[in-house]
Amino acid sequence: MRRSDGRLLKSLSPFVRIIPHIMTKRNDAQNFYKQVVAVDKIDQYIKEKKDQGIRLNYLHLFIAVYVRVLAQRPQLNRFIMNNKIYTRYDIRISMAIKRLLKDDGEETTVKFLFSGLESIEEIVKIVDQTIEEGCAAGAANEVDTIAQRIMALPNSQVKLLVGTLKWMDRHNLLPKKIIEASPFHTSLFFTYLKSINLDFIYHHLYDFGTTGIFVALGKSKKLPVVEEDQVVVKKCCEIGYVLDERICDGLYYSNSFKLVKKYLANPYLLDERLEKVEEDVN
């Protein structure tokens, strides 16, 4: 049976197709990577946009970068389900948010939907609108509603129902409505630790759902970096990545991180819309 969120890849090499049978869970296949980014050009870009009347921050910019890279590097947008490799039909990014920045503030999740062609101004509108809806006082999104209904049941029934949902997901029977609402069925999960003044972390991947990439952006701080064979101190951000190694090989990941670095070094490249989204041809 076909899935609503992705297409089965049938022409991959036998070696690639057997890997999910060897590493059957995402926590078997997690790789960790750290990226350090000097943010002087990012700060300059954000200031120039503010002077033009366009309000954006690190959250908007980093999401715009990852949307652009996912659009140009389609193997990153793959996922593993029931030991098989799929490619997604669209680009989605999930994020947990607090409706109020307090210890007891209610937490929920939001999921942004992108075509991959968006300019950064379009990204800003999508992100702001989605977060505004998610943070609305008294509002309950689909994730909240589903969770409330499940947790209203006795514990034994919760275990049975969650187990059933996982089984349905593995056999491509999970309803499209649940997949679209679920933050665990996403191209990339992003945590914006900079907003709470916290260092980056390596956040584990979830075995439920389809998330193969988790990105944690830490706070800005001064770090020594090498420029032209000289050690200088610059304002930087550290980014922690946790990656499912089964979705693509190391060289593909390496070239993808180089593309991330290119956009962070020159955010002006994000001003224009992308002409087309690259397809996963396998």
UniProtKB/TrEMBL annotation:
Residues 215-269 form the 2-oxoacid dehydrogenase acyltransferase catalytic domain. Pfam families: 2-oxoacid_dh. One of its GO terms (molecular function) is acyltransferase activity. This is 2-oxoacid dehydrogenase acyltransferase catalytic domain-containing protein. It comes from bioreactor metagenome.
